[in-house]
Each structure stands twice: as C-alpha cells, then as structure tokens.
Design goal:
By secondary structure, this protein is α+β, with helices and mostly antiparallel strands. The protein is 41% helix and 21% strand. It is built from 21 helices and 21 strands. Helix 13 crosses helix 14 and helix 17 packs antiparallel against helix 18. The longest helix has 30 residues.
C-alpha cells in the first residue's frame, strides 16, 4: 500500500468536538481575511489642521482654483498660476515660474511615433531647511500638478490637492524641517506630464533632490500607489509617518497595465526615490494632515541621492505596512519548490507518476470548470463593475469557490488527500516561478502563503504530526493558511477595484485561480462539515450586501454630455459643422441635428473613431483658419516638404497628422523630431502665435498630406439654437472649437 492511501493514525476527539474545533479554526482564518480587508482609521488631525481657520483657508483655495478649467496654455491655467504665486509670496517665499519648452516622443505598438512639444509654466518655490548644513543636503520635493482637463468635472479635480499643499507649505514655513523643501506645482500633466519632465531635465534644483513625494488627485481614498527607486530606507518614512495610507507593490505592478492610472512618470528621471500618493480629495483635512506628516518625517530624515534596491511592500492585519527587498521573494520560492519535490518523493516515491498525474490534472480540470463557468458571467460582471456594485462578483466568486472545494473532496475519494494537495499546490508553484521572474514586486502574494502551506502540509504528514491530537494538527493547519488569509483578500480586492473600471476582468480572475488551490490543504483534516458550514455562511452573507447589478438600459443624455460638443471649421470645404458623440437626442439637441443619423466623421477623427452626430453649422468668420504656407516641395532621393504653421487664434493646442506616407525624418524649427521611418503625429501646446517651421522627408514616389488642426476650448454659443426653460446648460468654456486646414505634397 502506498503512502497516498495509507490512513493517518491520529488521536481523535469526539465527533462534535472536532466539528466545533474545525469551525473555530476556519472562523479564525475568516476573521483574519476580514481584518486584512478593513481600512485603518486615520489618526486625529494635528491641531493646526483641525483648526477652523485651516479649513476656511483650504475652502477659499479650492473656490478660486476650481472656478474654471485649467488646461495648459489657457486663460484658466494662467489665473490658477497667478493665484499660486500670490499665495506663496504671502507665506514669505520667493516663488518663480519655470518657463520651459519640453519635448516628448511616444512610439505606439503599431510603430507610429507621436511627438509632443509644449511650453509649460511650472511654479517652483523653496523652503529653507533649519539644519546648519541644509544648503549642502539633498532636498525634499513635494509636487502636485495644477493644470486640468477641459470638462466641467475637471474644474474641481486637483483643487483640494493644491490647497492642501499650500497649507502644508504654510506649516513647514512656520516650523522648517532640517532639509530644504522644494515645492513644485507642475503644468502640462494632462498632456504627458510635460511640466514634471521640464523640471527634471531643465530646472537647476532638480539635481539636488534627495527624495520626491508626488500627490495626484486620482481616486477616492488616499493611498500610496507607486514608487520609483525607493527601497526600505525610503519606504520606512511612509510606514512610520502615515501607516494608515495603504498600498502594495502588487497594486503598482497592476497599475502599469493602465495608461490613465497615476504614475511617477518623468520624476523617475530624478535618480532618487519617488513615492506617489493618489486620492484623498473627498476629505481635504485628512489629505492635508497626511501630507504634513509625510513632509515633516522626510524633511527631518537625512536624504541621499541615488536610487535604492527595489522593495516589495504590503500591509498585514494588526501589523500594518511591511516591506522587504524584492529579491527576497526568491527565498520562499526556492524553498517551496524544494518542499514540493521532497513531499512528492517522500509520499509517492519514484513510482508515483500515476498519483502525481491524477492530482495535477484533476485540479487542472477543476480550474478549467471554474474558469469557464465564471467567464459565462462576464457581461453581468462587467455591468456590475461599471456600476460599482460588488454583490454579483462576490456571488460568482463564492459559487466558483464552492464548486472547486466540492470537486476537491470528490476527487479525494479516488485519488487520495496527499495527491490532491500536492497536485493543487503545484499550480501556484508554477505561477510563482513566472511571477517572481517577471514581476518580483508582486511575488509576495504567492511566495509566503505557498511556503507556509507546504510547510504545514509536511508537518502534518510527518511522524510528529501524525502523533498529535486533533487540536494541535488544526493549529498547524490554521498557521499554514494564515498567510493566504492575510494576503489574498486585499490582493483580489485591489486588483478588482483597479482593473474592473477599465474592463480588465481577466487578470483578477487569473489571480484568483491559483489562490483557490490553497483550499486543498483542508483535505488533510476531517473537517468537511465545518468547511461546508463556512462556505454556506459566506455564500449567504453575499445576499446581505447592498446593491445588485441591474441590466443595462439605454443611456439618457448625461447632464454634461454637451461638454463634448464640437464646432468644426474646415478650410478645404469652407464650411462649418456641429459634431457630437453618438447619444440619445433630446428636443434641444434635435434642433442641432435635424433628420441626421450618427456616422463616422473621417475628416476629423479618422476611420477608427466612434460614430458622431453631425450637421452643417453657420460659419463664424471671427474664428481664423490656420495660417499654413508650403515653402518647398522637391523630389530627389527623397521627397522634401517644407512648410510653416501659425495660429491666428493663438490656439492652446495644435494637432498635426501626416497621411498618405510615412515620414523618414522630420524637424521643427531646425531641431530633429524623428529620424526613422514611421507614421507621424505631432501635438503642440502653448505655441501662441509663433511661426513654426517644419521639414518632413518621405520616399520620393510617395505623396502625402499634412492635416493642421487648431483646438480651442468653448464653442460659438451665439450660433446655437435658442434655449427654452429646461434646455441643457452650456458653460462658456464647454465643448471645443476645431479649425482645420490640409497641406498636400504631390
């Protein structure tokens, strides 16, 4: 008889006591998982932040800064900058405006090169440190961006972060820390973080930054969402000063999948640790208190230039945030592989291939069943994710867990407990090997739970474990599953909340599958009734949660849907058009688009653009066309086109696109833009009415066109239909005006 089928002798308790003990053990794991999901309460704010005068000043900052949208190179942007300068001067500081021309190039996956050139205006101030040698020490950088998008909902976004940073500067000015503190209110964040890039590359204070704290308004609860070049020394300040701000290196790894998630961005070029905190605008007082505690903690810590060894960081129940070097995840990974091989050799010997295959492929079958069954609910889960309703995803997860656990018990009857446990844990071990190699910062999620589970399994299967009473064996089981209970729930929650709004449901599901395998460790104990009771209880608790995803209904026009209204003026046809993304039309909108159907407006947005409502509009002659002149069009070894562009409208944003050919090389004002063959696009910001000189080369037999498009906030509202009572409201800067011309090189 082999080891897989040999009964394990153990000192048994009466059946009802075993059931009670099993329920208590599983309850401990459930409570541990619940504690891991609980958000710590923020501490009481400091006296200066709790004062009513602090709140009054913040509210005034927010009122002024949120009065208008603040896109780069617009009047609202200049007004916000002037306010920041006046407030910083009132604090006794000497702020300056860094005006810089910044260039950025992005290569898309299909090979196209998108260049961005913008003139940014960063607001920079320095708070001298109190240490005698503060001028020779590396400085602390506190930064937030002050520009915004162009819609109504963008006006308030970021205002609380700027207000909190102003009041943090006030507190630091009154009681300076040891190090110098540099304040950066960056411009051009919404067009590629141009302001931060300009500071890193061109500002004289950048080479002396020893650590940077970046604050972004994205999100609700304030969290630490990303690091760059930060190791244990840099993370220690955050964990000491603001442990209630949760974050994990897993979340950072997942955020790299998203283009619009908050990122450290160009600040990584400072060659120093950077910590990014996002959210918190719903509670400015908590945001300001955390910002001040962080600034004081790092301001009094001796800083050093240079990046640090990458670290994995996460939170544990009761303990709070912890961190270790990312490479340390290799230790439990290697140990787990050795324990897995040793357990297989010890239990099945050299002839255990059949049992091994049955365990591995039996679990594989269960994982496929769970995967396929869960995927059939993807549309409903998508609707729930977009609606922010969590009951349906939890119910699907619990149903999948129940099916998997029941399948484990059924397979155990024919294969044996040991084969099923090792077959199940082989899958997270394989996953861990891939994760630790490619994403070492996220490997902690599987590394420590897998090592603990395998250690517990070996202990229970050893001679010592077989001689222990049921209670001792249960304690070993609970200890082996405790790391999984502490790390898996927050990992799945963070993955779901981060990726589900972006329709990325597959990564959380692929994370959950190897995590299910840890339930196989329950097979080595006689606690099946307790397991069934716990699953039933957890399943029933899902129905007590508020909210259920409703079927999708035909959307009604959003109150701010007119923010996307476009007045398009075309120099080639000498006509103007109204454009609006496809949406249901009310009576007032129907006056703009009488008898029309949505269509793809290729001239404006390209073949792959969404469908648009469009209709001819009166031409507004006060809006000028782009001033474009072809200076040269010669054909030799290459076709060389030279032209100039000037905006008579002083448009804050000019977009250029090349069609019909690929650019071999291109230059702007004599400075190279591209030097290899690729599709060509260019975005310009803050060029005002400068004459811009372009040179583009292509293959000699190719002909191409350059579309020049000026983009300006607002539409000519006097051309819109009259508004009756109840008609949608349109702010002065709502919508966008596009003025377009096309240059052709034959």
């Amino acid at each position: 008889m082999d080891a897989a089928s040999t009964p394990i002798p153990e000192i048994r308790l009466p059946g009802f006591l075993e059931g009670i003990a099993g329920c208590l053990g599983l309850a401990v794991l459930a409570i541990l998982g619940w504690m891991a999901l609980a958000q710590p309460a923020p501490p009481e704010p400091r006296a200066e932040i709790a004062a009513s005068s602090w709140n009054a000043r913040v509210q005034e900052h927010m009122r002024v800064l949120a009065a208008n949208p603040r896109p780069i190179a617009t009047e609202g942007n200049a007004q916000a900058r002037a306010y920041l300068l006046s407030e910083l001067r009132a604090l006794g500081l000497a702020p300056s405006v860094q005006r810089a021309t910044v260039r950025k190039s992005v290569v898309y996956y299909f090979g196209a090169i998108h260049n961005t050139v913008g003139v940014v205006h960063n607001v920079v101030a320095r708070i001298p440190g109190s240490a005698p040698d503060a001028g020779r020490r590396p400085s602390l950088l506190l930064t937030a961006h002050y520009d915004s998008g162009n819609t109504a909902r963008d006006t308030a976004r970021g205002a609380a972060t700027m207000a909190a940073l102003l009041e943090t500067a006030r507190s630091l000015r009154a009681a300076p820390p040891a190090n110098d503190v540099v304040l950066l209110f960056s411009d051009g964040h919404h067009v590629g973080a141009l302001g931060a890039k300009g500071f890193v590359e061109q500002h004289p204070l950048a080479p002396n930054i020893g650590l940077a704290l970046k604050f972004d308004p994205a999100g609700s609860a304030l969290r630490m969402v990303e690091t760059s070049g930060a190791g244990g020394a840099a993370l220690a300040g955050w964990m000491r000063a603001a442990p209630e701000l949760r974050g994990s290196s897993l979340e950072t790894t997942l955020a790299h999948m998203l283009n619009d998630a908050p990122h450290v961005g160009p600040l990584a070029g400072l060659n120093t640790p950077v910590l990014l905190f996002a959210g918190g605008e719903e509670n400015p007082r908590q945001l300001g208190d955390a910002m001040l505690r962080l600034a004081q903690a790092y301001g009094d810590t001796p800083l050093e230039r240079g990046t640090q060894t990458a670290a994995a960081y996460f939170s544990l129940p009761v303990v709070g945030p912890v961190q270790h070097a990312a490479w340390l995840a290799w230790a439990p990974t290697i140990l787990s592989c050795l324990m897995l091989g040793f357990a297989w050799r010890r239990l099945f010997g050299a002839d255990g291939a059949v049992e091994a295959a049955q365990g591995v492929f039996g679990v594989c079958f269960l994982l496929l069943v769970v995967r396929v069954g869960s995927w059939t609910w993807r549309d409903e889960i998508a609707a729930a994710g977009l609606a922010g309703e969590q009951r349906l995803p939890l119910m699907v997860m619990m149903a999948a867990a129940c099916v998997f656990v029941v399948g484990l018990y059924l397979f155990r009857r024919s294969v044996g407990a040991a084969a099923m446990v090792l077959g199940a844990l082989a899958w997270p071990a394989l996953t861990l090997l891939l994760v630790v190699f490619f994403f070492p910062g996220a490997a902690y999620v599987l590394a420590w739970p897998l090592a603990a589970a395998l250690a517990a399994f070996l202990a229970l299967q050893s001679g010592w474990g077989q001689q222990q009473v049921f209670a001792v064996r249960l304690l070993v089981l609970v200890a082996g599953l405790a790391p999984a209970a502490a790390l898996f729930p927050p990992a799945l929650r963070d993955a779901w909340l981060l990726l589900a709004p972006h329709h990325m449901y597959l990564p959380p599901m692929l994370m959950a599958l190897p995590m299910l395998c840890f339930a196989s460790l329950l097979l080595v104990m006689s606690i099946a009734p307790a397991v069934a009771a716990l699953l039933a209880l957890l399943g029933a608790s899902c129905f007590a949660l508020p909210g259920q995803a409703a079927p999708r209904a035909t959307p009604l026009p959003a109150p701010d849907s007119l923010e996307r209204l476009v007045y398009y003026k075309d120099a080639n046809t000498w006509r103007a058009y109204w454009l609006l993304p496809e949406q249901p039309l009310d009576d007032w909108r129907s006056q703009l688009f009488p008898g029309r159907q949505p269509t793809i407006f290729v001239e404006v947005f390209g073949w792959n653009s969404p469908r648009q409502w469009y209709a001819e509009a009166p031409r507004e002659d006060a809006i000028a066309f782009p001033e474009c002149f072809v200076l040269l069009n010669t054909v030799g070894k290459v076709r060389r086109g030279v032209f100039t562009v000037r905006s008579k409208n002083r448009a804050p944003h000019i977009e250029l696109r090349m069609s019909g050919a690929k650019a071999l090389r291109s230059r702007l004002d004599g400075v190279p833009l591209t030097s290899k063959e690729a599709p060509w696009m260019l975005s310009l910001y803050g060029m005002e009415d400068r004459v811009l000189h372009f040179e583009i080369e292509s293959e000699p037999k190719e002909i191409f066109a350059i579309t020049v498009q000026e983009r300006m906030p607002g539409v000519p509202q006097h051309l819109l239909p009259p508004r009756d009572e109840g008609a949608p409201y349109l702010r002065e800067q709502s919508g966008m005006t596009l003025s377009t011309d096309i240059l052709r090189f034959y």
